[in-house]
């Protein structure tokens, strides 16, 4: 059994990243906090922080859009070509290390998606997010009712000591 802590990310496949951002800003008033490119996987993305999940971590909604894939031949482009825009992936934060999660996937009788390939980001690639590392394992949509499940093993950074400045005392306003 794979031990899940919480939902960390909902990823939506979109054709036009800029237009999707404008639409969500108009609909919900949200602003992106992160933009990135994954040239190896040929997509770019924008992330919105949506809320605090149980008081112990932010959840994001991300828009993923193909990058340099005009014919929709790669994974994300093919998804949009065949299914249209919409829910692409759910990322679930897991208990345990990435290797333990990989073993838990196998213990369920499933084969990890993409031959057990993992993807990892280290602190220097995740500036300001309070993370030491984020490593993903994958469960194929074929095994998860049509949804790509990303299983994230996350190591959080220890808080950093800062020199806090004193506050300012505000006097009551006179009427």
Task: Summarize the SSE layout with pairings.
Blueprint: E1 4-13, H1 17-28, E2 34-38, E3 43-52, E4 58-66, H2 75-83, E5 86-94, H3 98-107, E6 119-122, E7 131-139, E8 148-156
Parallel strand pairs: 1-4, 5-8
Antiparallel strand pairs: 1-5, 2-3, 3-4, 6-7, 7-8
Question: What would your notes on this structure say?
Answer:
There is one protein chain. With 175 residues, the protein is an alpha+beta fold. It has a single domain (4-156), classed as 2,3-Dihydroxybiphenyl 1,2-Dioxygenase, domain 1, CATH 3.10.180. It contains three helices and eight strands. The mean pLDDT is 86.
Name the descriptors.
8-stranded mixed beta sheet; single chain; 175 residues; 3 helices
CATH H-level superfamily title? 2,3-Dihydroxybiphenyl 1,2-Dioxygenase, domain 1
CATH topology: 2,3-Dihydroxybiphenyl 1,2-Dioxygenase, domain 1
What value does the average pLDDT take?
A: 86
Task: Summarize the helix and strand pattern as letters.
Answer: EHEEEHEHEEE
Q: Percent helix among the residues?
A: 10-25%
Shape: globular
Concise overview:
This protein has 175 residues and is an alpha+beta fold. Helix content is 18%, strand content 37%. It has one domain: 2,3-Dihydroxybiphenyl 1,2-Dioxygenase, domain 1 (Roll), CATH 3.10.180.10.
């Amino acid at each position: 059994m794979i031990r899940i802590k919480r939902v960390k990310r909902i990823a939506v496949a979109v054709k036009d990243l800029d237009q999707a951002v404008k639409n969500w800003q108009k609909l919900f008033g949200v602003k992106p906090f992160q933009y990135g490119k994954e040239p190896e996987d040929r997509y770019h993305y924008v992330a919105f922080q949506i809320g605090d999940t149980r008081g112990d971590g932010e959840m994001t909604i991300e828009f993923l859009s193909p990058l340099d894939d005009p014919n929709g031949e790669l994974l994300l482009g093919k998804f949009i070509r065949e299914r249209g825009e919409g829910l692409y992936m759910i990322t679930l934060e897991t208990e345990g290390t990435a290797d333990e999660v990989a073993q838990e996937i196998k213990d369920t009788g499933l084969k990890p998606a993409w031959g057990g390939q993992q993807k990892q980001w280290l602190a220097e690639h995740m500036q300001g997010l309070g993370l030491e590392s984020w490593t993903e394992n994958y469960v194929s949509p074929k095994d998860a009712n049509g949804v790509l499940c990303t299983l994230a093993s996350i190591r959080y950074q220890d808080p950093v000591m800062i020199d806090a400045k004193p506050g300012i005392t505000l006097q009551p306003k006179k009427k």
